[in-house]
Specification:
This protein is of the alpha+beta class and about 500 residues long. It is about 45% helix and about 25% strand. The protein is built from 13 helices and 20 strands. Strands 1, 2, 3, 4, 5 and 6 form a six-stranded antiparallel sheet that branches. It has a four-stranded antiparallel sheet with strand order 9-10-8-19. Strand 9 and strand 10 form a beta hairpin. Helix 5 crosses helix 8 and helix 12 runs antiparallel to helix 13. The chain is elongated and about 100 Å long. The termini are close together. The relative contact order is 0.12.
């Protein structure tokens, strides 16, 4: 039997969805938290690295890691610990358990929300009503601050309600509400120091201008070394007169660096909440000079030139943000602060899978009892499963976090999909004065009208509840769009062939 274009589109969509989701069979565990002041971080280990072995013993899951670490630490004297990651090998000398939190490697590219992973969620509101730009600045600064603490699995996004109020939604996997509150509730501070003396602080008072693009900011060269690539960046900043004079007074007392005579003996150290985020050389030409123009430089490294360039660009943008608005620009209050257990999330997933499978099988059975054709029941099953797969594929492609509202949207999509398939089945069996092609066309016209009605009804939910129902709206719109443009036409083509037979 010749396969029509509509069925080919469905099959290609299923294959592409499977490729996007791409199940992972990697062995090991992934680092989800690593403080910047830890021994492991100083040796080059980073958040996101995959540990495959420790002291030559393979690590395939969290239990392997926990058993091995527990058997070694704590000790009275420092011992050698060899940690093998997917890309490198690191040697630590320590007598304490490494300050890192690990997790299982994700099995697929499907990203789950906090409802299913567990952690803490905070809905944050400023004491003043924020504009969209002010909210963007607040999110940028908050994101930078949380990066300093070595946290991963952090989601920060702007949300708003139907009244026009803007909020910041912060989600951190594996965190408690009290920890989350301590990280984001205080305003924080940014300081630039030479030795123990503060030269300037972040914000418009001392830093009047930060170049972000153009000739005054950018990556200016990349070089290859034995261990990979390094790309250098620089950008200009302008200091206030008071900050410039203070900088001149402090640098005037500094000698020239004996080992590197192009620079002064001390560096300009940048601190965020008393944590060192960068350390910059001071040119000898700035010694004792009152200048409001300073060039900030740095670098990013990577295994390839592209990776080094991307890391340098990221470092530059983060540093620009810190210098412009280092401390949180507004006093904040937490409107909602809740904790979700990961065990509860696992139960949700199991319950949803069982309920969804039971619903699809029940519908297929009812279709069989109604139309007395097993091939029609199989067609309904295929369509329902393919719609779910396409939704998951699109969600993986756009990095959408599937939370409980999103799962509810998928279930709603299955329900509306079955309704529309029943419409196609009934239209194909009635109105014998019309050809099967005309009857299917009439059914698809009805479905298209229902589609636009559903889409417009979902739009208010995108903003309702300060964005907490956004997942329901997004997955529902994705699901019914995939249904109308991919699976319904293919289902109609299958039904047309079955009825003709």
């Amino acid at each position: 039997m010749k396969i029509g274009l509509k069925i080919w589109i469905l099959l290609i969509s299923i294959v592409l969805s499977l490729l996007v989701i791409s199940p992972s069979f990697e062995k090991g565990i992934q680092i989800s938290y690593l403080p910047q002041n830890s021994t492991a971080y100083e040796q080059g280990i980073r958040t996101g690295d995959i540990i495959t072995a420790i002291d030559g013993q393979k690590i395939t899951n969290i239990e392997d890691y926990s058993d091995l670490i527990t058997s070694k630490f704590p000790t009275e004297e420092k011992i050698k610990l060899t940690i093998t990651t997917k890309t490198n090998e690191f040697i630590l000398f320590t007598n304490q358990t490494p300050e890192m939190i690990v997790k299982e490697i994700p099995k697929t590219k499907i990203q789950t929300g906090l409802d299913l992973r567990g952690g803490s969620r905070a809905l944050v509101e400023a004491e003043k009503k924020l504009t969209s730009q002010e909210l963007t600045d607040l999110i940028s600064v908050t994101n930078n601050r949380l990066n300093v603490y070595g946290l991963s699995d952090v989601v920060i996004r702007p949300v708003s309600d139907l009244s026009g109020n803007n909020y910041m939604l912060v989600e951190i996997a594996g965190s408690t509400p009290s920890e989350l509150e301590s990280l984001i509730a205080k305003q924080g501070k940014f300081e630039a120091k030479i030795g123990n003396e503060t030269v300037f602080v972040g914000g418009d008072k001392d830093v009047t201008y930060v170049a972000r693009t153009g000739e005054q900011a950018g990556i200016y060269d990349c070089n290859q070394y034995e261990q990979g690539w390094s790309c250098n960046f620089r950008f200009a900043i302008s200091l206030s007169e008071n900050a410039a004079e203070k900088h001149a007074d402090i640098t005037d007392k500094l000698p020239i660096n004996s080992t590197n005579p192009q620079y002064l003996s001390e560096k300009l150290n940048l601190y965020l909440d008393d944590k060192l985020v960068d350390s910059l050389f001071i040119s000898k030409e700035l010694k004792g000079r009152v200048t409001t123009q300073i060039s900030i430089s740095g670098s990013g490294a990577g295994a390839t030139r592209e990776e080094a360039f991307e890391n340098a660009e990221t470092e530059m943008k983060q540093l620009q943000t810190v210098l412009k608005t280092g401390s949180l620009p507004f006093k904040l209050k937490i409107v909602l602060n809740q904790s979700i257990s990961p065990l509860l999330g696992e139960k949700f997933i199991k319950a949803i899978l069982i309920a969804g499978l039971a619903a699809i099988l029940s519908v297929a059975l009812i279709v069989f009892l109604r139309y007395k054709k097993i091939n029609l029941s199989l067609a309904v099953l295929l369509t329902a499963f393919s719609e779910v797969l396409i939704i998951l594929g699109i969600a993986s492609l756009i990095n959408w976090n599937l939370d409980l509202p999103s799962i509810a949207g998928i279930i709603a999509t299955i329900g509306t999909g079955v309704d529309q398939q029943i419409v196609i089945l009934d239209e194909s069996r009635t109105g014998k004065e019309y050809s099967i092609k005309q009857r299917i066309k009439r059914a698809l016209f009805i479905i298209m009208g229902a589609y636009f009605t559903t889409v417009f009804s979902m739009l208010p939910l995108y903003w309702a509840g300060a964005g907490l129902l956004k997942g329901f709206a997004v997955t529902t719109i994705i699901g019914i769009s995939a249904g109308v443009f991919i699976t319904r036409p293919a289902f109609a083509e299958i039904v047309k062939r079955i009825v003709k037979d």
